[in-house]
Amino acid sequence: KYPLSQRVNAIKPSPTLAVSQKAAELKAAGADVIGLGVGEPDFTTPEFIREAAKQAIDAGHTRYTAVDGIPELKKAICAKFARDNQLSYEPSEVLVSAGGKHSIFNLLTAWLDEGDEVIIPAPYWVSYPDMTLLVGAIPVVIEAGIDQAYKITAAQLEQAITPKTKLLFLNSPSNPTGMAYSADELKALAEVLRKHPRVLIATDDMYEHILWTEEPFVNLPMVAPDLKDRTVVLSGVSKAYAMTGWRIGYAAGPKPLIAAMKKVQSQSTSNPASISQYAALAALTGDQSFIGEMVSEFRTRHDRLIAGLSNIPGLKVRPGDGTFYAFPNIEGLMQAVGVDTDVELCERLLSEANVALVPGSAFGAPGHFRLSFAASRDTLDEAVRRIAEFAAKYA
Ligand code: PLP
């Protein structure tokens, strides 16, 4: 009776949002569930940002804005790229959208045709393959396991590129693995990309600031300036400023491409919420010390969590470089429990240990689960205790 489009039938709802919802439902029903499925900081948006939003309302900034964002915010984004990344962009090379997800969607809609191939390194952020399918293009997944720190090599990239390849996704530091590419690793990828001028690079820098490596953050255009005119940088304020609900993301890249993405946005959502734009402006131009405090807390939690998980038989875990996720390999535990899939293991953990996690297969990496450490230290300690108790039962 309702023959839906082939494109929508090809995709599934976001699995991370589904886990959070299930955990919330169980909690509401009275279960003592610890939900570590969420992908958002547990911090409150800093006060000066909230104040800026209130002021924006009172000043009457409650109408349509320019489709691509208010000029002040676009200028602030250009200043951010100059300050943090030594990358020079004009406001006409920047588009503000309703969250990082929206920026990515605009890019895929503007750049891809039916049958075009998109290279997606796995473990990947859940939405890349489905968004690719939704615009009729083909995800080509490169697998990178724990032994290569979940990062693809230049040789793997070279092998995956075909005459149909039109886009490569890079996400560093990575959701779900927490791993970041070093400058040398990116330079090696750049060498390959130089040989394939048709391939555009989408670097998703959403977690840029949530990083604790000795080497400062780098992305592809920073180490390979000659590829800047083939790269779109995708970012936003959601994670760095604990602003997931405000829905402000942005893209920077070559002017013709940004103009095309703006055209897509003009015929779909128009401008992102005016009030959120003023809040994002305050975030990018105000006191940045909040980020350091939040990252320091995430790092402490990371260290405790990795130490705790390392002691659990059947788990293999590598310390991450950043983000607020841990991504242990759980094949040993799956074997001990006698289940074939990570989905089953996560179901068992939820029903027997009251811990909600996202199975690695959602990220194209079966045999793992993702724990978000956007939760208090006590909660994390308790989650580790429960997982350890669960594992001990089957040891
Ligand atoms: N990119 C990555 C890697 C993410 O993890 C997320 C959010 O989970 C996004 C983009 C999208 O962020 P936003 O909430 O701004 O749409």
TrEMBL record:
Cited Gene3D superfamilies: Aspartate Aminotransferase, domain 1 (3.90.1150.10), Type I PLP-dependent aspartate aminotransferase-like (Major domain) (3.40.640.10)
Keywords linked to the UniProt accession: Aminotransferase, Pyridoxal phosphate, Transferase
Record's keyword annotation contains ATP-binding: no
Domain Aminotransferase class I/classII large, chain residue ranges per copy: 32-387
Biological-process GO terms, alphabetical: amino acid metabolic process
Cited PROSITE patterns: AA_TRANSFER_CLASS_1
UniProt cofactor(s): pyridoxal 5'-phosphate
Keyword Secreted included in the entry's annotation: no
GO molecular function: pyridoxal phosphate binding; transaminase activity
Name of the protein: Aminotransferase
Record organism: Aliidiomarina haloalkalitolerans
